[in-house]
Design a protein that fits this description.
This protein is an alpha+beta fold and 345 residues long. Helices cover 17% and strands 32% of the residues. It has two domains: 115 residues, 3-layer Sandwich (Rieske Iron-sulfur Protein), CATH 2.102.10.10; 197 residues, Naphthalene 1,2-dioxygenase Alpha Subunit, Chain A, domain 1. The protein has a seven-stranded antiparallel β-sheet. A hairpin with a 6-residue loop joins strand 6 and strand 7. The protein is globular, with a radius of gyration of 22 Å. The protein binds FE2/S2 (inorganic) cluster and fe (ii) ion (FE2).
């Protein structure tokens, strides 16, 4: 699957950037091969548009924000969050032709990140109840491009056969390579949900992070996959600590994904520092990255093109759900009116 060849993928919301990145000036981002300019068009209100001026194609992300509009660095035309040209200095106040406009995209803030949808959304941004629960604190963890397909990372998150090998230095129990069966596994309308109990060992860092003395524990885990490239992993430890990891593999282009990860925990900075939490998750994440960046980015959706074992069921369901969605919506997605691409007036 080449993500840029699937128009339907434009109809999902993706987290593209932490809100804090937009404080000082406009930014650029590439989403599904589409160059974007992102800026704040009002206090805390992000906007997204194609990062090309309709005059001579200059990059708007090199421009400035004037009264909430993005001003092109080349000749100073300004565009609002709907893509309408609102100022042309050379026209000296005369009427601006309506054809002076750029493609603007749906854009909103959620969980302290800027989310963008390039087309008519099929579904909403995933709801994470813990994010609204004041007993949880949010820790931003990683924001970086990986040279791998998002689908590889999604299935990796639900693959209980890999921790014993890939994470042998951080939490995997090397001596127990036969993974546990999931307690429950259900397909949802927009993804899947899996609960399982995974035995893990506690490194010295984890003993501190989990406030536990024991060298071994279990993770009571609930993983949720949200089509196409978002997952949450809610880990509950026997002492009641909850560590919920949100990870998105936002598709930059066919070969790379922007990893957006934060966690939510029901403890305090005084008990466990964010720095220590990040340090452990960083070590785990780099172990996955080392493997995943070596995999083929053109992930086959056909089940017969790779070999499988029982623990690959989530990855197989992901392939089937994506293939079914593309098939069912093929006509609809290729028949989208051009006007639907832009934010309505
Ligand atoms: S290229 Fe943008 S105003 Fe000329
Ligand atoms: Fe992993």
């Amino acid at each position: 699957m080449l993500v840029t060849q699937q128009p339907l993928l434009k109809r999902f919301w993706y987290p593209v950037m932490p809100m804090t990145e937009l404080t000082a000036r406009p930014q650029s981002f590439q989403l599904l091969g589409e160059p974007l300019v992102l800026w704040l068009d009002g206090p805390g209100k992000p906007a997204a548009a194609r990062d090309r001026c309709c005059h001579r194609s200059a990059k708007l992300s090199n421009g400035d924000i004037i009264n909430g509009a993005i001003r092109c660095p080349y000749h100073g035309w300004s565009f609002n969050a709907k893509g309408t040209c609102v100022n042309v200095p050379q026209l000296a106040g005369n009427t601006i032709p309506p054809s002076y406009r750029i493609d603007a995209y749906r854009c909103q803030e959620r969980y302290r990140y800027v989310w963008v949808c390039l087309d008519d959304p099929l579904t909403d941004i995933p709801h994470i109840p813990e994010a609204d629960n004041p007993q949880f604190r949010q820790i931003p963890e990683f924001y970086e491009p990986w040279r791998c397909a998002g689908l590889r990372l999604m299935e990796n998150s639900f693959d209980n056969a890999h921790p014993h090998f890939v994470h042998a230095k951080t939490f995997g129990v090397e001596q127990e390579p036969v993974p546990p069966q999931p307690d429950t596994f259900e397909e949802t309308e927009w993804g899947l949900r899996m609960r399982y109990v995974l035995p893990v060992f506690n490194s010295e860092v984890q003993k501190r992070n989990l406030q536990m003395e024991a060298g071994r524990t279990v993770r009571i885990s609930e993983g949720v996959w949200f089509l196409p490239f978002i997952r949450t992993l809610k880990i509950t430890y026997p002492n009641g600590l909850i560590h919920l990891i949100f990870t998105a593999a936002t598709p930059i282009d066919d070969r790379s994904s922007q990893i957006v990860q934060f966690c939510l925990r029901n403890d305090t900075e005084a008990a466990v520092t964010a720095e220590s939490v990040i340090a452990f998750d960083r070590a785990v994440t780099l172990e996955d990255r080392a493997i995943l960046e070596g995999t083929d980015y053109d992930v086959p959706l056909s089940i017969s093109d790779e070999q499988h074992m029982a623990t690959d069921k989530p990855g197989i369901v992901m392939r089937r759900k994506l293939a079914a969605l593309f098939k069912a919506n093929g006509k609809k997605s290729s028949g989208i009116e051009p006007g639907m691409k832009t934010v309505s007036e």
